[in-house]
Design brief:
Largest sheet: 6 strands, mixed
Number of strands: 8
Distance between the termini: 28 Å
Helix content: 25-40%
Radius of gyration: 22 Å
Low-confidence stretches: 1-14
């Protein structure tokens, strides 16, 4: 079942939004893939790694840098240099995820594309991260190449400056349908917090889900309040953009093969909230 939302701006196509987002069935991730990425986790199930990761002290490193590719050249190197300080070594990443969008559709075949310039640049966002946690979450990721053990020290003559190191980390290319919505997924992977995930997808100045706790309000109580706050502080076009963000995160989760039920619960929570908010905004618009 679909609901049609017609934004108030003339010339814009009506937005067709499914009333529910289907949770695909993925094969479970194999424990041995987690062990390959981090031998110390041998004997732990992927679920134990996912739920315990937020207590390990690792931080979300965020996006490190952007690089650009000019098709048809593939251009991504096998590795990339990450500059870290002494303090950063404790949380040192093991790999860099190179996240980029799907290529736009083309009527040319692979052979022709190699000899043509298509006038677009592909933006690639580099995210330093830890391979073990992604191996525990995602069933559709390629196997991570092994991390080299060598460090390069950068000499610095300034006494007050921290000593820096260069890590040459393997780069893992990942094409996603909605790269801007990769960071909220990464934040959940590291924090294991449903409320933070939903708040990142649906920012609202007048409402914020509390940290995950047994005494948190039930969805049937919190969703109407959250939706009302969103409808009161955002117009319909802005709510449409929020819906696009949630759906973009959904498409990324499908592409990655995310198996964690807790993340899927949070995504469905966000989707129901934004649809409710859009209904409220439409009713207010019709009544005005």
């Amino acid at each position: 079942m679909y609901r049609v939302v017609a934004p108030p701006h003339a010339g814009r196509d009506a937005a067709k939004l499914p009333s529910k987002l289907e949770t695909p069935t993925f094969p479970q991730v194999k424990p041995e893939r987690v062990t390959i990425a981090q031998p110390a986790y041998e004997g732990l199930s992927p679920k134990q790694v996912r739920s315990g990761w937020s207590h390990m002290g690792y931080k979300v490193l965020g996006m490190y840098r952007k690089i650009y590719l000019d098709p048809p050249k593939p251009g991504l190197p096998d590795g990339y240099n990450l500059l870290v300080t002494d303090n950063g070594l404790a949380n040192s990443a093991t790999h860099i995820l190179a996240v980029y969008p799907y290529a736009p559709p083309s009527t040319y075949g692979p052979a022709a594309r190699r000899h043509k310039s298509f006038g677009f640049r592909r933006e690639v966002c580099l995210y330093p991260t830890h391979a073990a946690i992604w191996a525990a979450y995602c069933s559709r990721l390629p196997e991570m190449p092994k991390k080299p053990s060598k460090l390069k020290i950068i000499a610095d003559s300034r006494q007050a400056t921290q000593r820096a190191f260069v890590l040459r980390l393997p780069m893992v290319p990942i094409a996603l349908p909605c790269p801007p919505m990769f960071l909220p997924i990464m934040q959940f992977v590291y924090m294991y917090r449903r409320g933070r995930f939903v708040n990142a997808l649906l920012p609202c100045s007048d409402f914020m889900l509390p940290p995950d706790h047994q005494l948190d309000p039930l969805p049937q109580e919190a969703i109407p309040q959250y939706a009302q706050a969103l409808a009161a502080t955002s117009d319909l076009p802005k709510l449409c953009r929020y819906a696009k963000n949630v759906h973009g995160a959904y498409r990324n989760m499908v592409a990655l093969g995310v198996v964690e039920e807790r993340m899927w619960e949070a995504l469905h929570y966000a989707w129901e909230t934004i649809l409710t908010a859009m209904d409220l905004a439409e009713k207010a618009q019709e009544a005005s």
